[in-house]
Amino acid sequence: MDRTAFDALFDMTGRTVIVTGGTRGIGLSLAEGFVLAGANVVVASRKADACEEAAAHLRGLGGQAIGVPVHAGDVEGLDVLVDGTVAEFGGVDVLVNNAANALAQPLGEMTVEAWAKSNDVNVRGPVFLTQKALPHLKNSDHAAVLNMISVGAFGFAADLSIYAAGKAALMSYTRSMAAAFVGDGIRVNAIAPGPIDTDMMRNNPQEAVDAMTRGTLMKRLGTPDELVGAALLLCSDAGSYITGTMIIVDGGGTPR
């Protein structure tokens, strides 16, 4: 490998990345990483003001970015996200399915409405957004899909079963998508974060946060920025021979 090839590994100059749930937490950190790597970034979330604020922040980092307000569980609205991205930047190279619904109801007390609300965002949204972006991903020479799942997919989840099962389903779809789209030159991978210091985490009771922290070898919460390296690996040419797999970023908390 020469210097030119090495310098190109994580360079995403000119590529267009969609990040759902991209206005705060992990999504915003990933968006920052992609912008700093040279990509055009489209952030999506439910609130228009949050989208514009995040996009302005990303432009302040020196990149090109827009915000598109859309609910990840609204399948019809996902067309607006893809069409708006293509209208602004001419295509889609990378899709990051990061938006999530952390709704939790214990087994035995689940409602049909809660189950549907959770799965609309955590499973249906990513699957159908990927399908809607597929024609544009096929036209890219550097196409990648990154699904953000959770280490919750691997453990016991008596009170978080809706969320954990949805993330396990998205992990399964990651492998299926990788097999289905490999002939089109599209790589599909996932990241499974452990306990990360986000608003979603802070909405838990402190004793629950403490328990999750104790369950890691590092005995601390991760930061959203600590997901950026793995995301860049999986979405750039540095990961050109990686597809259908998952990187666990959890401070050493998940039994292997």
UniProtKB/TrEMBL annotation:
Which Pfam families would you find in this protein's record? Answer: adh_short_C2
Q: Where is the Ketoreductase domain?
A: 15-194
Q: Which CDD domains match?
A: SDR_c
For this protein, the record's InterPro entries field holds: KR_dom, NAD(P)-bd_dom_sf, Sc_DH/Rdtase_CS, SDR_fam
Q: Keyword Protein transport on this protein?
A: no
* SUPFAM superfamilies from the UniProt entry: NAD(P)-binding Rossmann-fold domains (SSF51735)
PROSITE patterns, per the entry: ADH_SHORT (PS00061)
| UniProt keyword Oxidoreductase present | yes
Know the name of this protein?
A: SDR family oxidoreductase
Q: Which organism is it from?
A: Mycolicibacterium hodleri
